[in-house]
Amino acid sequence: MTSYAESVTIPVTPRTYTEILQFYAEHAQLLDNGLAEAWADQFTPDGVFSQNVKPVPKIGRAEIGTGMRRGIDRIAATGATRRHWFGMVVAEAQPDDSVRTRYYALVIETPKNGRPSIYLSTTGEDVLVRHDRTWLVRSRHVAHDGHDDIG
Amino acid sequence: MTSYAESVTIPVTPRTYTEILQFYAEHAQLLDNGLAEAWADQFTPDGVFSQNVKPVPKIGRAEIGTGMRRGIDRIAATGATRRHWFGMVVAEAQPDDSVRTRYYALVIETPKNGRPSIYLSTTGEDVLVRHDRTWLVRSRHVAHDGHDDIG
Amino acid sequence: MTSYAESVTIPVTPRTYTEILQFYAEHAQLLDNGLAEAWADQFTPDGVFSQNVKPVPKIGRAEIGTGMRRGIDRIAATGATRRHWFGMVVAEAQPDDSVRTRYYALVIETPKNGRPSIYLSTTGEDVLVRHDRTWLVRSRHVAHDGHDDIG
Fold first, then answer.
1. CB neighbour class for B111 (10 Å; exposed up to 12, middle 13-18, buried from 19)
2. Which of C19, C38, C85 has its CB closest to that of A87?
3. pLDDT for B20-33, tens place per residue?
4. What is the nearest CA distance from A41 to chain B, expressed in angstroms?
5. CB proximity C84 to A under 8 Å
6. Beta carbons of C87 and B87 less than 8 angstroms apart
7. CB-based contact (8 Å) between A120 and chain C?
8. How far apart are the two ends of chain A, measured CA to CA in Å?
9. Residue ranges of chain C with pLDDT lower than 70?
10. How far is C50 from chain A, CA to nearest CA, in Å?
11. Residue B45 burial (CB count, 10 A)
12. Alpha carbon of B98 to those of A23, B14, B22, B29: distances in Å?
């Protein structure tokens, strides 16, 4: 935990910060509209996606997209809608021009004809890299609140 | 759904993006403070407000404000507080200097002396136009999660 | 309530607005990682923290940090995780170079091995001042939804 106090932060520009907020917004909307493969294409080709509740990370767009496709199809079959909210985004520039982010994310679930509730509360840490005029996720670690780390 | 992948996006400037975030913040606070008419004045005079759960759109500030006034007064009579949260805002500049946004919105409800919960999870699509030093909503479509479109 | 309509607003720059969003993100993460003292150090030495549900404000970093430390330790003992989300941030520059903000904040709580829920929905009003390359809270008033003011 001392990393927060110790870390030397290089602030990102307003342009970079607003780009990243919009990147996350688009990223969430792709996922929640069922476009798992387009969402996975927002990782780098060698991107890594790890979670504290999974024993091993997923590596590469195909593996990341396939895993998410299964989850999306399973939810869709129940008629429920899920929305991913990213928030509390801290972004720090790195010497290699990548950006490291620390953020919170919620998953809001609404059953068919039902009341919404919070399915999941998480923290995330990404390394983002520029690619042409957008950003890509080089690595992401998501930790689910309320669950011990495994693996 | 393919519109997300196909759309050509013209990124907005950091200034426009931060203005829009603040516009939505002010817009939500007006509404949640019971100022339905001031909130409706943030639409253009010919503004259109449609929802997937309503058969016809509301058109113009008077109609939009009157509809919202009824809702606000009904909630206030119960002693509950509602807060609108906009998030995951994607903003795209249009050739005519308007800005098209796609976003999520939650309504958080707290009963008098009770625990908060999510009353509603929605997606929104606005066309925003500049007016003097602020923004106005030319059109808005809100879709409630968990409900089929009617109308 | 008429203050919203009457207030003369001096818009902040995109740089200030994105700095403030990141300040709140870092601020929330310090708190939710249990670093109550580092969180309190983000107030000015004579900072004031008042809440509508408390009879008197807390004044100064030691008093503010000590009060929050007790709350954090009590929650930690239950095994629950809390996350503070700030949102709907309106920021207005003041003639003395301070910035006045009005915002919403949620506290999301996840019990050990349980489902998240909203513990608290609030509104906040801060006066923020620049200090070196960051911001500090000179004063904060938080009002809990669903509760009458006391004190």
1. middle
2. C85
3. 999 999 999 999 99
4. 11
5. yes
6. yes
7. yes
8. 20
9. 1-9, 151
10. 23
11. 10
12. 21, 15, 17, 23
Let me know: does C45 contact C65? Beta carbons within 8 Å.
no
CA distances from C71 to A59, B9, C64, C74, C83 (A): 40, 46, 11, 5, 13
Q: Which residues of C touch A17 (CB under 8 A)?
A: 18, 21-22
Q: Cβ distance B121 to A82 under 8 Å?
A: no
Quick one: which of C61, C60, C67, C51 has its CA closest to C144? C51
Residue B15 — φ and ψ, nearest 5°? Answer: -65, -50
* Rounded Cα gap, residues A96 and B37, in angstroms: 51
Q: How far apart are CA A68 and CA A46, in angstroms?
A: 16
Pair of tokens at residue B135? 């923004």
Rounded-to-integer distance, Cα C45 and Cα C58, Å: 12
Q: Which two tokens stand for residue B9?
A: 């996006």
Q: Please list, in sequence order, all residues whose beta carbon lies within 8 angstroms of the beta carbon of residue B70, skipping any fewer than 6 positions away.
A: none
Q: Which two tokens stand for residue A118?
A: 């919070």
Structure tokens at A108: 């809001």
Q: Which amino acid is at B21?
A: L
Q: What is the pLDDT of residues B38-93, one digit of tens each?
A: 999 999 999 999 999 999 999 999 999 999 999 999 999 999 999 999 999 999 99
Tokens, residue C16: 């200030």
Q: Which residue in A60, A65, A109, A64 sits closest to A83, CA to CA?
A: A109
| pTM score of the predicted model | 0.94
List the subunits that have 3+ CB pairs under 8 angstroms with A: B, C
Classify the complex by whether its ipTM is higher than 0.90, answering yes or no: yes
Shortest alpha-carbon distance between residue C56 and chain A (Å): 29
Tell me whether strands A134-144 and B43-51 are parallel, antiparallel or unpaired.
Answer: unpaired
